[in-house]
Structure prediction request, 425 residues.
Amino acid sequence: MASALATCDMASVIEGVRTARGWSQGDLARAIDYSQSWVSRVVNGQQSLTISQVHDLARRLGVPLHLLRFGDGPPRAGSAEKGVDTTRRRDFGRAVAASALLTATAATAAAPAGARTAGHRCVNETTASALRSITGGQRRMDADSPARHLLPSAVAHVHLSEHMLAQAHGTPFHSDLSAAASEASGFAAWLHADRGDTGSARTYYRTAVTRARQAGTRLLDVYMLGSLAAFETDTAQDPHLGLGLVQEAGHVLGASAHPTARAWLACVEALAHAGVGDGPAAVRAIGRAEREAARSANTDPPWPWVFAFDEAKVAGYRALVGVRLSRPHDARRAFAEACAPRAANAKQSAVLQVELASAHAEAGDVDEAFRLAREALATGMRFESERVIGRVRSFRRRYPRPRTRCAADLDEQLTSLVTGVTASG
Prediction:
């Protein structure tokens, strides 16, 4: 099997999985949702596979893509027919590169049932930290990678984390592994939201909340509840539900929590209040966030926060609240204070650019508004981010009348998404 994986010999891989699991060829065909005759041709070397078919088979059989590699030497006789045509190797290598963050421990999740009789021995005091480091690496890659490249690895990592958690039942490591599984599900939710799949995003966020509660870690519970609240408020556009989740998170957080957590949650609350049109409550929440952020200055953020939540971050939320409450001048001042469009994460920067574009449009600065929206859309198209593209579309629907050159350029870009014709400079 190791040799088959190393040379991407999918015929041997799927036959090895079939034998190890005690399946008939018909069982295998049903498991991968292909016909038995097609499976027979593949196993017997009579059917070559495309890159997309290799990807699909690996996903259906639970084989992590990063384990499929090509050997350094020349292919053995017949390998082109049994695996992937050698002319496709370079493209396939690029396709699986985004999955390389999954370490060799992922093989456990793909192993046949017979190989897992002693699975509990795979779990030890380092398992949770290893899983969390994988999630951390994936999160860092999110800044400059399309979500569709990261999503297969992220979902596979969720399955791996859940498998390890099941193996840890009744051990001292169960709580730590629940936390690791929570983080993995939270990141998968984020990626699904970026792809515009709100149903899957909501499912993964709820799993993240459940696992955080099983971990018994208050700050992680709050972080996942607040993340779900932000998603419901800003992506699913249900601020009433978001506000309810924020209030639940606040109850869990308590009055003596770290100021970073309190500042962040107050900002999410402000956004929800602004979404339901309660300006005074939104302003009060932002005021609390500013005070808590000042208290947390020069201190390291508590896990699971990775970056400091400082006054500039609060200013960014103040700007978003200004946009939601149709206070464009306040919003533009806050954006300038936050320096939001220069954020390190290009996709997040584009989201904020659309918000800033709305503030400019409300203030009557139409050309600047559409210029910002066009820049944001270009970023969204480059990263294939439905989160960004959808916001630009919403921006355009809110301002249908301007027919300036900038507006026409934006319309041309949006049309190119449908027709496949790239908009000219």
In short: The CA atoms of residues 180 and 236 lie 26 Å apart. The chain has a mean pLDDT of 80.
